[in-house]
Amino acid sequence: MDALPDRPRFAVVGAGAVGCYYGGRLAQHGHDVHWLLRSDYDHVRQHGMEIHSKDGDFILKPSALNLYHRPQEMPKADVVLVTLKTTTNNRFQELITPLLHDQTAILTLQNGLGNEQQLADLFGPSRILGGLAFVCINRTAPGHIRHTDYGMIKIGEFGRPISQRLRQIDTMFNASKVECHMLDDLNMGRWEKLIWNVPFNGLGAALALTTDKIINHPAGLELARQLMDEVIRTAHAAGFNLDATLLELNIRRTLTMGAYRSSMQIDRESGRAIELDAIIGNPLRTAQKLGVSTPRLQMLYALLSMQEATPAPHQAVG
Amino acid sequence: MDALPDRPRFAVVGAGAVGCYYGGRLAQHGHDVHWLLRSDYDHVRQHGMEIHSKDGDFILKPSALNLYHRPQEMPKADVVLVTLKTTTNNRFQELITPLLHDQTAILTLQNGLGNEQQLADLFGPSRILGGLAFVCINRTAPGHIRHTDYGMIKIGEFGRPISQRLRQIDTMFNASKVECHMLDDLNMGRWEKLIWNVPFNGLGAALALTTDKIINHPAGLELARQLMDEVIRTAHAAGFNLDATLLELNIRRTLTMGAYRSSMQIDRESGRAIELDAIIGNPLRTAQKLGVSTPRLQMLYALLSMQEATPAPHQAVG
User: Fold this and answer.
1) ipTM of this predicted complex?
2) Whole-angstrom Cα distance, residue B137 to residue B262?
3) Which residues of A touch B209 (CB under 8 A)?
4) For residues A21 and A140, is the Cβ–Cβ distance under 8 A?
């Protein structure tokens, strides 16, 4: 909980689209960023990173990048940015432990519910911060990132009010072309984001439909509202008093969003594991623990679980 | 409601797999069957029908078939067998009216709920009979039918007890290699069949999964039970006192069924319209009219409705 040094060392664990983009913006603006790469290591070491962003393209040459293949090779960091897919959270211990000194802060920018708790269980709650990334971003090839829309992040301490280190990180992001806001209540923010993520990631993946196909269909619009209502009622039971107007606000936003492919739909159609537990399963388990009736959330989880047990449709049918 | 003549004239409206098979069995056994064919007319006129059946193959040569392209060309019938897909029920008036004399009985062997009522609204309730076909059957090419499993039918009067004409039809089918049973309460039989059709046709089509993939997944098994429970509670509210043991009976039967592709899954994957209203929509509307809470049935209807508004997955992604 101490303040960070003036020029903190960042370690980025999970160099997919989100890790490369947000870590990349910090590196672009002179921060000391160290990257753990797995499959893309050789390519990035040779060619660097190329980021096409609606907020301005930039290239990070190999000479400007601190790249590592194993966490044991990395120096201790002051801030670990966790940008792994939540489907690989079982690797937290192995990948993060070598990077920690006594005061290292861990900021997870992952999707959904439960990531901070999992990190806190392993590394102690006082280190943990969380962030929500509102961004449409893709890794199109090794070292190639395409940032097409949005980009704001909201960060907060895990179960604590805004701290000095949080303000420092907020300032650094905002000075690095990343719009950043601080949350008094991180979990409130997580639940607020789930209002959108549950219906549109969930239904988008289950049906292989973009947001417009869901929301412009009367039955889809009604179902989206019903799922949002189940999320809001669960959040209320969990002590997060989400404003009821958020439901219609999310509907209105989605109506003007166009044909948006959610990350879960993209993962599903690409044959990758979807972030089922973080986005659908953990909210459902919260509802069940608190006795909140959420039949549609439960059914959505069942549908996606069954699909995950089989190959993606376009692979199965060919 | 009068008895049928000793050698009644049958008209088959809807010469797909079900129409060709059950009409074909009657023709094979010497009954007077007249067929209305649309797309397959030219092929069947030239080559006849070829039925591969687990109960014995048979061929009907063109010379043994009474084939028509338009209902106006057909003689009046004593029994009209309606075997159209329910997605074309809007053609009842046009296709059936020319076939009726004062005493013509209309027996629909279509899937789901509401077909008898639609026929009764058009042609008067006293003509109407209904039947449930428990059969796995496919039209593999024009004039080619493959009957792979089951085959029994259960027939009943529409809202009336077993009649003389029903007994006559029952006898004719049983003498034509079709196991036939009579129902005291046709609608009770329809609801009973929906216990299976709602989860396995519905989920099979929505997820492109065969029955084994659904029932052998813990979440799928639970969801199937929940959907069955919603159907049974709706039937109860509608006055059909389905035995609660039917739920587990249907689960057990499905567990031994193997990898079964439901008709709705086949239709969906073939890019054809699914029988959404007959199998899912009409039970849902009954529940809503009677104030029965069926959130999963409603969600299933919403999912399938959204999918129907878009091409089948393998066409969209391919």
Assistant:
1) 0.90
2) 10
3) 306-307, 310
4) no
Q: How far is A296 from chain B (nearest CA, A)?
A: 6
Q: What is the pLDDT of residues A135-146, one digit of tens each?
A: 988 899 999 999
| H helix runs in A156-308, sequence order | 164-174, 186-207, 211-215, 218-237, 245-255, 263-269, 276, 282-290, 295-308
Residue B154 annotated as catalytic:
no
Please give the torsion angle defined by the CA atoms of residues B173, B176, B177 and B178, in that order, rounded to the nearest 10 degrees: -20
User: Residue A110 phi/psi, 5° resolution?
Assistant: -80, 170
In tens, the pLDDT along B63-121 reads 999 999 999 999 999 999 999 999 999 999 999 999 999 999 999 999 999 999 999 99
To probe the interface with B, which of A303, A305, A310 has the most B CB atoms within 10 Å? A303
Cα–Cα distances in Å, from B19 out to A12, A209, B42, B85, B155?
65, 35, 17, 10, 15
State pLDDT tens for residues B242-291. Answer: 998 999 999 999 998 889 899 999 999 999 999 999 999 999 999 999 99
Minimal CA separation from B257 to chain A, in Å: 18
Q: How far is A269 from chain B (nearest CA, A)?
A: 8
Q: Closest to B303 (Cβ–Cβ): which among A207, A301, A306? A: A207
Decide if B9-184 and B188-310 have a common fold. no
State which fold the B188-310 domain adopts: N-(1-d-carboxylethyl)-l-norvaline Dehydrogenase; domain 2 (1.10.1040)
> Do residue B310 and residue A226 have CB atoms under 8 angstroms apart?
no
Model pLDDT, residue A317: 33
**Domain spans, chain A:** 9-184, 188-310
Tell me the CATH architecture of domain A9-184. Answer: 3-Layer(aba) Sandwich (3.40)
Give the chain A residue nearest B208 (alpha carbons).
A313
